[in-house]
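Structure ticket #2291
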Amino acid sequence: MSQPAFTLHTSFSPLISLYDTFLLDQFGVIHNGSQSLHGAVGCIESMLDRNKKLAILSNTSSPAHVALKRLKKYGLRDDMFAGGLVSSGEECAKYVRENYCCNFNEDASIVKAKKALWFTWKESETQKPLQFLSHIENGIDGDDNLIGGRGVIGVAESVEEADFILLHGSEVWRQSRELPTSDDLDLNFLYNEDFTMIDPLLDQSLERNLPMVCANPDFVVGLPGGVVGNMPGKIAERYAQKGGIVHHFGKPSPRHFHACLDNLGIVFDANAKSIPGVAHVGDSLEHDVAGANAAGVDSVFVLGGIHARELGLVPTGSEDVGTVIADDDVGGHEIACITEKELTIKLQSFFEERGIWPTHVVPRLSLGFD
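Resolution: structure written out below.
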């Protein structure tokens, strides 16, 4: 059986003329959660100059309008993206709103709220867990308009009180709506992948047949300073392996990709093996590339993201270009280089081992490395 072909490029430049529409991942492609990555903003501006249609497709657990407003921090504007931003958190919020959110009566005291066993993030400048809960309940869109009836979600103080698990983040177990409290339990998972605190809660939840709703299916994320963070997807996978019911949202589900195309007004056949003129750019083989393949969209695998160190490469930073693909003669560069031949061998083995093959491979979302 022949191996699927992929094309290795030394920069993103050759790809711009090949497609009319690009769906862009965020973390590891555009930014690292703190700063934009080397060359990404310039590359996006170049695509716009050539009248390309753009949308952001992200597994962030934040509501779409919140994530879109954050783009200003990275030197981008929300009007650069005709298709807006489609987030797994938005899909998750809609599902919880429709299935667990109790509507207010005039006398709110008689409403029995469904309660969530709530795994989330620590409150910070960039993470606002209560904002996510409020978005579920009130359904606020990017223009502060109500998109659903006001409702209420309770926060369980124990597994026994819970009606479902809301896996919004992988940092703390939040037992109250108060800001923040001593009752919040640090899960010791984001940086250490330690299930010591989590497993007993999952086991108790399984005994009660609690369904889990996962707002971010990613397994890992690249954080500033080269740190790798362990994401909610790993906890969801753990619960599923134990026999729990898990509702995932976001990539690699094809509907996540198709939602972007709907936003862009692109007419397509959801059952087609290939949707022409569209490419998705991402750094996760399991979520970005596999999802694009399932959706019938060409994929562009970014090497400088989450798999960089696994491949023996240097990740892309805000100032650091990461590993550069060069000819056999790589002398004179004071940067990490790898030859096309050496890298091709690495990638063939990497893709074959996982059974996932992209259409294209680039070092980063950049027109070059200067």
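Closing remark: Confidence is low (pLDDT under 50) at residues 141-149, 330-334.
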